[in-house]
Specification:
The chain has one domain: NADP-dependent oxidoreductase domain (TIM Barrel), CATH 3.20.20. It is globular and about 50 Å long. The protein has a 7-stranded parallel β-sheet, covered by helices on one side. The protein has a two-stranded antiparallel ribbon with strand order 1-2. The protein is about 35% helix and about 15% strand. It contains 11 helices and 11 strands.
Length: about 375
């Protein structure tokens, strides 16, 4: 009987294979509106803290520049990340990169700080946030501007109507939504084409597959999965190592609590076993699974470490057949996952509740 090689041996071989030939990041169309991005993006939130301590500015800029040097051109931020600091950081990095070759995505709509947050989507708020983001990023336009969460008190037609004006003024190139309901997507898309949906999607978070994914494909909307590594779980967070004191938001997440993380370890073990079979690491397999969900799917894993960024890039070299994808999916039955996917007390701002009031017929867009 053949003995499976150790995790270290597999990782070493993968690194050796990666060093032999640089991984080429494909370019893909995000949706059908014309926005072209790298197949793998970089979520910049953690550079300014959230799940960890913020990096010193120069280190954060170095991570962004390194990602670009490897072929990543799609960078994701938001006004709320680091209380505006993340946009400033990305803006400084952009000064050292060719702006025309970078796709900047940022967001508006969340005010306050965890766990005391509230959502805003009035036209006045949309415009003021956009103007502020342009100034912090120090750019003339935003490539992809998302509503970060849906304001359930404001008709989506009003919010997207203002976004449409910003597109017409050249301040925004494309519009996106994050965590919207199906009804909100349809109504928004009727006002102005929606280019991308940002939503959580990973091996242990697949609740979007029955409704949102088919809807996006019907309407020609690209999908940008955040937390494609399960908020670090498939990288071993909380499983291979104890939760660090600086883990920030992760420590509050239901799936990482003591009563759940032990149950979820069996999920990690199964993925680790399959990763050995595919001669890659568990995070590479988990990310490769997301990457294989379609050419219209562009995950944005975040990291503060170059070695983790290199590992994420290695996921692009992992080739999976339809049979492999089924086997990996079946290794992580959703009913086996212990704990909800959303922070306690904030479930109401997830996509399942993100409807808005009917549009007032007196309002003209």
């Amino acid at each position: 009987m053949q003995v499976l090689r150790s995790y270290a041996e597999v990782a070493k071989e993968r690194q050796r294979r990666t060093n032999m030939a640089e991984v080429q990041i494909p370019r893909v169309k995000l949706g059908t509106q014309g926005l072209e991005v790298s197949k793998l993006g970089l979520g910049c939130m953690s550079l300014s803290g959230a799940y960890n301590d913020p990096l010193p500015e120069e280190e954060g800029i170095s991570v962004i520049k390194y990602a670009f040097s490897k072929g990543i051109t799609f960078f994701d931020t938001a006004d709320v990340y680091g209380a505006n600091a993340n946009e400033v950081l990305l803006g400084k990095a952009l000064k050292q990169l060719p702006r025309e070759k970078v796709q900047v995505a940022t967001k508006f709509g969340i005010a306050g700080s965890f766990p005391n947050i509230h959502v805003k989507g009035s036209p006045e708020y949309v415009r003021s946030c956009c103007e502020a983001s342009l100034k912090r990023l120090d750019v003339e336009y935003i490539d992809l501007y998302y509503q970060h969460r849906v304001d359930q008190t404001v008709p989506i037609e009003e919010t997207v109507g203002e976004l449409k004006k910003l597109v017409e003024e050249g301040k925004v190139k494309y519009i996106g939504l994050s965590e919207p309901s199906p009804d909100t997507i349809r109504r928004a898309h009727a006002i102005h084409p929606i280019t991308a949906l940002q939503i959580e999607w990973s091996l242990w978070t697949r609740d979007i597959e029955d409704e949102l994914v088919p809807l996006c494909r019907e309407l020609g909307i690209g999908i940008v999965p955040y937390s494609p590594l399960g908020r670090g779980f498939f990288g071993g967070k909380g499983v291979l190592e104890n939760m660090p004191a600086s883990s920030g938001l992760t420590a509050h997440h239901p799936r990482f609590r003591a009563e759940n993380i032990g149950k979820n370890k069996s999920i990690y073990d199964r993925v680790e076993s399959l990763a050995k079979k595919h001669q890659c690491t568990p995070p590479q397999l988990a990310l490769a699974w997301v990457l294989h969900q379609g050419n219209d799917v562009v995950p944005i894993p975040g990291t503060t470490k170059i070695k983790n960024l290199d590992q994420n890039l290695g996921a692009l070299a992992v080739k999976l057949s339809e049979r492999d994808l089924r086997e990996i999916s079946e290794a992580v039955p959703i009913d086996d996952v212990a704990g909800g996917r959303y922070y306690n007390g904030l479930e109401h701002i997830s996509w399942k509740f993100a409807n808005t009031p009917p549009k007032d017929s007196r309002i003209s867009i």
